[in-house]
Amino acid sequence: MVNPVRIDAKGMHYTPLNRAIREAVASGATEIILDHVMGQRFIADGLRGEVTIAIHGVPGGDLGMFMSGPTCIVYGNCEHAPGNTMDAGQIIIHGNAGDAVAHSMRGGKIFVRDNIGYRGGIHMKQYLEKRPILIIGGSARAFLGEYMAGGLILVLGRDRGRPEIDRGIGSGIHGGMIVIRGGVNEENLGVGATMSELSREEIAGITPLIREFIGHFGLDSADFLNDRYFKVIPSSARPFASKYTWEV
Amino acid sequence: MTIGSVPLRYKISVDHDQCMLCGRCVENCPYGVFRTEKDRIHVNSRVCVACHRCIAMCPRDAISLAERPVDYRSHPLWTPQVRESIYNQARTGKIILSGMGNAQDYPVIFDRLVLDACQVTNPSIDPLREPMELRTYIGKKPSILRFRKENGETVLETRLSPNLMLETPIMIGHMSYGAISLNAQQSLARAVKKIGTYMGTGEGGLHESLYLYQDRMIVQVASGRFGVDIDYLERGSAIEIKIGQGAKPGIGGHLPGEKVCADVSCTRMIPMGSDAISPAPHHDIYSIEDLKQLVRGLKEATEWEKPVFVKIAAVHNSAAIAAGIARSGADAVVIDGFRGGTGAAPRVFRDHVGIPIEAAIASVDAKLRTQGIRNEVSVIASGGIRESADVAKIIALGADAVYIGTAALVAMGCRVCGTCYRGLCPWGIATQRPDLVARLNPDMASVNVENLLYAWTLELSELMGAAGINSIESLRGNRDRLRGYLLDQGIMNVLDVKPVGA
């Protein structure tokens, strides 16, 4: 198999497109280039392997759903829920992404250069060595990290120095951490979430991730480092434990 | 002390003349009812939950149990349960959690439906002599078959959708590892494999010791997405999207951190001791179009090789919802009636939300037929199927197959005490405590479940034979073989059955 494999996705339904991708991976391709992608859903759905897929155009919903290993680089914007229940691998988006980015993601990394929609990182969870990471260059809409059970969301507020996130941040969060450059107003935190400033050591801990983000998009590190960062974490690992009484 | 203590729910007494002080009751009761003091068994009835473990283990029949030994002033409206719920909530200010299925005294439609049998004019069939066809296929059926000739051979041109082949129209519903023990899941898995049917994993992932039975497992994807990855999806014989559950329609589920032990944590892929929260909606489903996207997402991930089911709770508009599901590309719709069991549910939901499975199935089947899409989905009924007669009746009302849950647990010893949410099940079923789990021996319990499935299948074929029917296909939706006995006209219209005598 000659690398890279080029597939012209123009007018193609997602099933034959995914079949072509699977066939390329099965025959040993490690680089695939998709041209003229326009709204095809489920690209790389359930795909395994060590392969990099460059996507030119706008992929439809659920890019990299259940994906376990590959890297998808999107040269454009992304529809909703990229990285839905993703297991391992990376999604790098040179643009914006829609709602429910990284929904129930359990491993791997997602980098979004610009902004994301509502409910980003909803119900991300971690287990042992699997720790999902979602890095957003710009801002996010409401309910970021809702029901979050593990992993890390990092919001960098590019261009503004401080991201704009509306209400319900970390609503029902019971694990993991949302790190926000410059912090947010307390009233925008969801039920069960608390915010505190990141220590120097903690900032040092996330710095490699910031550098990785910068590296993907060719940005200037000076814009992001040497700033204050805040973390939103659960006020309790058992947010619903006191809601119930036994029937006696 | 404003309210004071409420009367005993159960009273345990020991017949000391019979008792031989073997101590089995002390050993067996995880709730701490019994203790031995000065060569005598003493009891604390206050903590009893009526699980009957002590009674079942006592070699001398020395233990007896009385329910509500202390009377309240009787009142038809202000029942003891109502009063005690108020005391409980006045003390705590919390939502009351309960277990098992609906405990409200609603009339049971199944018990007001009678089956038909042949006499003289159309002879009954003897299942001992004639073959009875109970094999059931779950999945889409083509509306038309196209063939072409190729070198003189007739070749099927229509692409068939994947179907599950069941040797009996009875499957075991989704009870997760976490809600029930691994030994319980093991027992169920062995039984379905022997019988040639299927069981659900629930939203708890698939433990590696069950990989042996994966071709008999329907893997569930629910709103928490616990234990879901591509391996899990590929292992299952079918995938079920759980939207709702009959015991608690409209709300999610919480597996309390206490039940998330090392093994459960590994299967669900979450840290030990953390609450496993399945939110009320799927975060990516807010419409039928979104559901279609998840159905297709799952099919695409598994290369269109597996049937995808969608399970909803039976609610007022189930029929219209099921029609939407049929158009979403799903292969089967599971309707879970309001009597469906659960490990834990807020009592107000368990007892008051949802509709009976009999009415839901009849209306779903009617709606799908009216719209000409009945072949697009199989219909699976669950929630309160107690015996083979219920299976026959619900199939006659339009179901393709059933899921049983509680009945399968009862076959393993469950006494329906409804205390599953405590995690102390003395029968080793709804618990993760190793010493309690060890009480359930899968070698034996699987035979019990297998026996039950076998016996119901036999009864079903006898019932069919008596009605002159030799194939389950001919029973399906065959409402003429049902009559309503003391059902009101409104319900009979919904069920589309005539009254007895008509």
Q: What are the SSEs and their pairings?
A:
The complex is a heterodimer of chains A (248) and B (502).
Chain A: E1 5-8, H1 14-26, E2 31-38, E3 52-58, E4 68-75, E5 88-93, E6 109-112, E7 133-136, E8 149-155, E9 175-181, E10 193-197, H2 200-217, E11 229-234, E12 244-246
Parallel strand pairs in A: 1-2, 2-3, 3-4, 4-5, 5-6, 6-7, 7-8, 8-9
Antiparallel strand pairs in A: 9-11, 10-11
Chain B: E1 10-14, H1 24-28, E2 34-36, E3 41-43, H2 53-57, E4 63-67, H3 80-92, E5 95-98, E6 113-115, E7 136-138, E8 147-150, E9 153-156, E10 164-166, E11 170-174, H4 182-195, E12 199-200, E13 217-221, H5 230-235, E14 238-242, E15 253-255, H6 262-268, E16 276-278, H7 288-301, E17 308-313, H8 318-326, E18 332-336, E19 345-346, H9 347-352, H10 357-370, E20 378-382, H11 388-396, E21 401-404, H12 406-410, H13 434-437, H14 442-466, H15 472-475, E22 482-484, H16 489-495, E23 498-499
Helix pairs in contact in B: 4-14, 8-10, 11-14
Task: Explain what you see.
The complex is a heterodimer of chains A (248) and B (502). Chain A is of the alpha/beta class. Chain A has a domain at 96-238: Pectate Lyase C-like (3 Solenoid). Chain A has 2 helices and 12 strands, in the order βαβββββββββαββ. In chain A, strands 1-2-3-4-5-6-7-8-9-11-10 form an 11-stranded mixed beta sheet, sandwiched between helices. The longest helix of chain A has 18 residues, at 200-217. The radius of gyration of chain A is 18 Å and the shape is globular. The mean pLDDT of chain A is 94. Chain B has 502 residues and is of the alpha/beta class. In chain B, 29% of the residues lie in helices and 17% in strands. Chain B is built from 16 helices and 23 strands. In chain B, β20, α11 and β21 form a beta-alpha-beta unit. The longest helix of chain B is centred in the C-terminal third of the chain and has 25 residues, at 442-466. Chain B is globular. Chain B starts with 9 loop residues before the first strand and ends with a strand. The mean pLDDT of chain B is 95. Chains A and B meet through α1 and β12 of A and α3, β5, α5 and α7 of B.
